[in-house]
Amino acid sequence: xxxxxxxxxxxxxxxxxxxxxxxxxxxxxxxxxxxxxxxxxxxxxxxxxxxxxxxxxxxxxxxxxxxxxxxxxxxxxxxxxxxxxxxxxxxxxxxxxxxxxxxxxxxxxxxxxxxxxxxxxxxxxxxxxxxxxxxxxxxxxxxxxxxxxxxxxxxxxxxxxxxxxxxxxxxxxxxxxxxxxxxxxxxxxxxxxxxxxxxxxxxxxxxxxxxxxxxxxxxxxxxxxxxxxxxxxxxxxxxxxxxxxxxxxxxxxxxxxxxxxxxxxxxxxxxxxxxxxxxxxxx
Length: 283
Ligand SMILES: C[S@@+](CC[C@H](N)C(=O)[O-])C[C@H]1O[C@@H](n2cnc3c(N)ncnc32)[C@H](O)[C@@H]1O
Hints:
Blueprint: E1 4-6, H1 18-27, H2 68-71, H3 83-96, E2 102-106, E3 122-127, H4 130-135, E4 141-144, E5 160-166, H5 175-185, E6 186-196, H6 207-210, H7 214-226, E7 235-239, H8 243-248, H9 252-259, E8 269-275, E9 280-282
Parallel strand pairs: 2-3, 2-5, 3-4, 5-6
Antiparallel strand pairs: 1-9, 6-8, 7-8
């Protein structure tokens, strides 16, 4: 069988802690454990590049075509999902993130869903409304930038251990470019957690999302990951609220939905997760 060599990325490994490495090892699809050298010219490598576009031009359109900055001009100091969703997300973060991590919270606002009792090395916010971001107690600093106008983040390559994007992926018009940019700034072994429910600002969500189903939206995010060479196979996490959760909920929206007989009235939870992989290349 042809020998396996690794792209230049293998040599760019940042120092990482052993606990983080444990997480990586379970997720990586490394093709070989040999010590073969890695002399490939990075220009020959397709790692981190966009392999194919997922969306058609029509699929990227929004009903509200004014700049996103205008829509988010005034702070919205609300939570966009219910307590059950947030608690599931916080538990997922507790499982997947380690205290020594440097984290980027993409499309962030005034709230963080990170566990309160864990101190991460650095948490950076990236969003559209400075007043919201300034109130977010978890952020060490933040950046305001419209990702639909400029999808370069302005961070060095390989500088974050984790990137999070909560209930916002539906607003990205060039998700392939944004996912490639996330790949670039993640350290090898770093992870990207994209979570969402079925709520959205309808006029600001892209057509492919608006017109999709719960199933197709999960598939869309899976394909965003797969469109970039070098992420691990995306893992999907789903949690549907139970009847017991519904009984315990006192939210007015939930109450009205239950009154109308519409399911539990609670927010279903979806997350798609993948890691920046070591990409094996075969001669
Ligand atoms: C539904 S809120 C979610 C906020 C936050 N992630 C949370 O969990 O509460 C959507 C967020 O996406 C951000 N956003 C929307 N369009 C954006 C764009 N074009 N560029 C950057 N951020 C954007 C907004 O700033 C807003 O905070």
